[in-house]
Amino acid sequence: MGKRRAFDEIWGTGGRRRPRKELAELARWIEATPASELSRRQHAAEAAFRQLGITFAVYGDADAAERIIPFDIVPRVFLADEWARLSEGLVQRVEAINAFLDDVYGEARIVREGVLPPDLVFGNPQFRPEIAGMKPPHHVWAHICGIDLVRTGPDQFWVLEDNARTPSGVSYMLENREAMIRLCPELFRSFRVAPVDGYTDMLLQTMKSVAPPGAGSSPNCVVLTPGHYNSAYYEHSFLADNLGVELVEAADLVVDDDVVWMRTIAGRVKVDVIYRRVDDDFLDPLVFRPDSMLGVPGLIAAYAAGNVTIINAPGTGIADDKAIYSYMPEIVRFYSGEEAKLPIVRTWRCREPDALEYVLDHLDELVVKLVDGSGGYGMLVGPTASDEEIANFRAALVAEPHRYIAQPTLALSTVPTLGDKGVVPRHVDFRPFVLTGASGVQVVPGGLTRVALREGSLVVNSSQGGGTKDSFVLLGDEPEVRA
C-alpha cells in the first residue's frame, strides 16, 4: 500500500484508456457532455445550495466564516455486488462497535481478558466513567454511525476511521441527490440507482424503536442543537424539518423529577428521545463541564433513570478513538467470533516504543494523526509536508507519543471530477451511514463521497478545501442501460 498509480473508479488502473465495462455508459456521458454544460449544471446546484443556506462554518477563518461545500457534478458509482460486500462488512463492524460500548461501560470483559490494554480504555479522554453501569434501551449505543472508507483497487476497500459520536454529512448526501435528479435526469434513465430519500423515514423509525419502555406508542422525539453558531447547524435544522420533529436548544428543555420536558407556548410536553448534536462535554453541566451553557441540567439523571433515550448514547466517543480503531480486527473477532470483513489500514500506535521508533524514522513517508483528531486537523501527510512541519511533528511525537498513530500513505482511488480545465481525476473517500435500532442494523444505500479538489491532494475534508459528490448505488447485478 505504498506509493503507486491510483486506481480510477471509472477508468481502472493505468490511465485513461478503456472504461470498466460496467461503467461504460457513465464514461460516454462524461465524454459526450461538454465541460461548459457540466460547469453550468454544477454552478446551478451550488447556487441552489447557497439559496437554501446549506453552509458550514470554518472556525478561526474570519474571511470565510460561512461557506458552501463545493459540489461536483460527476457522480461516483458503486456496483450492486460491491455494495453488497460493503454492507455485510459495515453491519458486522457496527454490531461490534455497539457490543464493545456495551461491554466497556459494563463488565469490561474485553479488558479483563487481555484483548485491550486497561489504560487505553479507562485512561482514554473519551471514556466517560460517569455513565459506567448505565444501559441504553435495547443495548444500542451508536444508533447512527458514519464509517469512513477508502478504496485502493477494484476490490480493495479499507476502513479509515469510525464516527460514532455525532456523525455529520447526511444532509449533503440528500441534497446532492436532489440536485442530481434535477440537473442530470438522463443518468437516472441510464442507471437503476437506489434511492436515498427514505433516510429520514429510516432514522425516525430507528429513533422511535429505541424509545424508553414508558414512552407509549407515539414517543416524542426532538433534535438537540448547540445553536445557530455551530458549524453543522444547517444539518441540524434540515434533519429536524425532514423528520417532522422539534429542533430544540438547551433552554427549550427542562428536567423535573428525572423526566425531560420541552417548553412550548401550550405548556410542557414530555420528551422521550433526544437526537443530540451536542458533544458529551457540554451535554449536562451537572455531570460533565459545569460551565456548559449548551447542555440540559439533570439530563444524565433522566437518562440513568430510563426515562429518555439519547442518540447517540453518551460515551460513544471512545469508539472514534484512532488507537481503539487499530484494535478493531480484535474487537470484531472478540464479539462476533469472525474475522473482520472490512480491513483497517495498517496502523502504528506511537504509544508503543517500537512503533514510535519506526514512525520517527519514516515521518516523510507516513500519515500521522491525533488519536482524537477530526476534520483533517492535527494531521501530518509526510510525503507532501515541509521540513518544518515534519520537525514540528517529530517534537510533538517525542513529547506525547500516546496522542498519535501513524499509517502508510495510501494511493486513494480517484473519480473523474470537473476542474478548471475539464474533467480530471481527484482522490475520494466515502462515508456510508449505518442505523441501529431495536430491530437491527440498516445500511443506507448511498452515502457522502468527499473529494479532494486540489490536484494531488489526499485531504478531502470540507474544512481543508474538499468537496462532495453524489454516490450512486446501483440496483441489480448490472446497470440497466437504456437508449
Automatic annotation (TrEMBL):
Domain of life: Bacteria
Domain Circularly permuted ATP-grasp type: 75-452
Listed InterPro entries: ATP-dep_Glu-Cys_Ligase-2, CP_ATPgrasp_2, UCP005522
Coiled coil segments of this chain: none
Name this protein carries in UniProt: Circularly permuted type 2 ATP-grasp protein
